Amino acid sequence: MTRLTALNPEEATGKTKELFNAVQAKLGVIPNMMRTMGNSPAILEGYLNLSGALSHGKLSAKTGELLALAISESNSCDYCLAAHTFIGEKLAKATPEVLHAARKGNSTDAKTNAILQFAKTLISKNGIVNDEDVNKVKNAGVSDAEISEIVGHVALNILTNYFNNTANTEIDFPTVPSLEFQK
């Protein structure tokens, strides 16, 4: 059962209604996560702004989806695992094998692997990385701008993971079992 209410877009007012209208215009639907974030227009707007900014960064949309999966798996966020598996497959055109590997922080592409591993390191070390961690990702050809964006993606996905885990948001994408239960 959900712990926070997903707002009905038809009943939204003010800033929330404005944000819902923008999401509807862009996506054609307002996912439950955003409907629930709408309880606080500040949170919804912050999420949309950071997500939008990162979509114009150096890292590709596909890499962003792979990062989201690695981060969501680390934080046991079923909602985000479902959403980003769906988006990764349908929009980023990643294969199920690529998506599955990303959840573990792995990729057959060396640079993408380094990006995913660095994100996992950031999470496991609560952001307190050292010179060796940064040099390892740089030695894989990841630029300072890309490293900065990895940090941004980690922050964005921690926000959504923690939000959905707190709200127990109703999943409105095809569900994806946690890797914990696939052993």
From TrEMBL:
<dbReference type="GO" id="GO:0051920">
    <property type="term" value="F:peroxiredoxin activity"/>
</dbReference>
<keyword id="KW-0560">Oxidoreductase</keyword>
<dbReference type="InterPro" id="IPR029032">
    <property type="entry name" value="AhpD-like"/>
</dbReference>
<dbReference type="InterPro" id="IPR004675">
    <property type="entry name" value="AhpD_core"/>
</dbReference>
<keyword id="KW-0575">Peroxidase</keyword>
<dbReference type="InterPro" id="IPR010195">
    <property type="entry name" value="Uncharacterised_peroxidase-rel"/>
</dbReference>
<dbReference type="InterPro" id="IPR003779">
    <property type="entry name" value="CMD-like"/>
</dbReference>
<dbReference type="Pfam" id="PF02627">
    <property type="entry name" value="CMD"/>
</dbReference>
<protein>
    <submittedName>
        <fullName>Peroxidase-related enzyme</fullName>
    </submittedName>
</protein>
<feature type="domain" description="Carboxymuconolactone decarboxylase-like">
    <location>
        <begin position="41"/>
        <end position="117"/>
    </location>
</feature>
